[in-house]
Design brief:
One of its GO terms (molecular function) is G protein-coupled receptor activity. By secondary structure, the chain is mainly α. 75% of the residues lie in helices and 0% in strands. Helix 7 runs antiparallel to helix 8. The relative contact order is 0.14. It has nine helices and no strands. It has one domain: Rhopdopsin 7-helix transmembrane proteins.
Length: 288
């Protein structure tokens, strides 16, 4: 049966996401303690940390379900857990776009950092994004899943909603918007990297500005490798719902790999600081 093949794959993916995500959040939390929280980029990273934290709380329920092949937490709990992965994906996407947009704006305006005037402004801006996204998504979650094959032991079987033409149109719009935005961001990032490489003397690997642009490129690649497989496959899935349910679940699980972004980002920052502490005594004499 397909589920006997899919469930071990899903358990493996979610286990990796959970362990890597928790480690990344812990490390990143320590790194953010001494950073400037008025920075727009840091504010976006803090929001990503919060989004990942909320989503990771739902992963154990998914793992238990796929291990036991039975849902024992009730229908509405199933809807909430099912919604969290979509909420996580689109909130991450929004904050990725905000962070990259700010970094691009800073580059073209020749500013090293773009900051809020006060910390309160960063809180208000973050809250506004969360509220807007929740206002859009929560009604969809409430209405979505009214037609289900649930027999008290199954979960995530909400695919009957996709038979409605309106739901399909909304899905196509979301797919088109995400693909267009990511391709646009990738194009702009490549243009920026080319400009940086042309303007920097000597080896580009020795310049901080070049590595900063590679960090921006990293977040774009996270969106491509985490979100694109699910959305591209969904174009096919919308017309083959019944026979491709488990394949869709695997591609949906791949979107959760974006939780590993902070782990990678934190490790880069952590090793960079280690390198600085190692090289400092060699480059400069100790000062008492």
């Amino acid at each position: 049966k397909p589920k006997h093949i899919a469930h071990p794959i899903l358990v493996t993916i979610y286990a990796v996401v959970f362990l890597g995500g928790v480690v990344g959040i812990v490390i990143m939390t320590f790194l953010l303690c001494r950073t400037n929280t008025r920075s727009v980029t840091i504010t976006a990273v803090i929001n990503l940390l919060a989004i990942h934290s909320v989503f990771l709380l739902s992963i154990p329920f998914r793992i238990i379900y796929y291990l036991h092949n039975e849902w024992e937490f009730g229908f509405y709990s199933c809807k909430i857990v099912s919604a969290t992965i979509h909420l996580h994906m689109y909130l991450c996407f929004v904050f990725y776009v905000i962070m990259l947009g700010i970094r691009f704006l800073g580059f073209f305006q020749h500013k090293d950092k773009i900051e809020f005037y006060r910390k309160l402004h960063s809180v208000v801006a973050s809250s506004a994004v969360w509220i807007i996204m929740l206002v859009i998504i929560i009604p969809m979650v409430i209405l979505y899943g009214t037609n289900t094959e649930d027999n008290g032991k199954k979960c995530f079987y909400f695919q009957k909603e996709l038979n409605h033409s309106f739901v399909r149109i909304v899905n196509y719009i979301i797919i088109a918007v995400m693909i267009f935005v990511v391709i646009f961001l990738l194009t702009v990032q490549i243009i920026i990297i080319v400009k940086v490489v042309k303007n920097l003397p000597g080896s580009v690997l020795s310049h901080q500005e070049f590595w900063a642009q590679l960090k921006s490129l990293f977040f774009i690649l996270v969106m491509i490798f985490s979100f694109f497989p699910y959305h591209l496959f969904r174009i096919y899935y919308l017309f083959h719902v019944d026979e491709c349910f488990y394949v869709n679940e695997i591609f949906l699980a791949i979107t959760a790999l974006s939780c590993l972004d902070l782990l990678s980002f934190a490790l880069q920052t952590y090793f960079h600081k280690i390198c600085q502490t190692i090289t400092c005594p060699v480059r400069c004499p100790c000062k008492l």
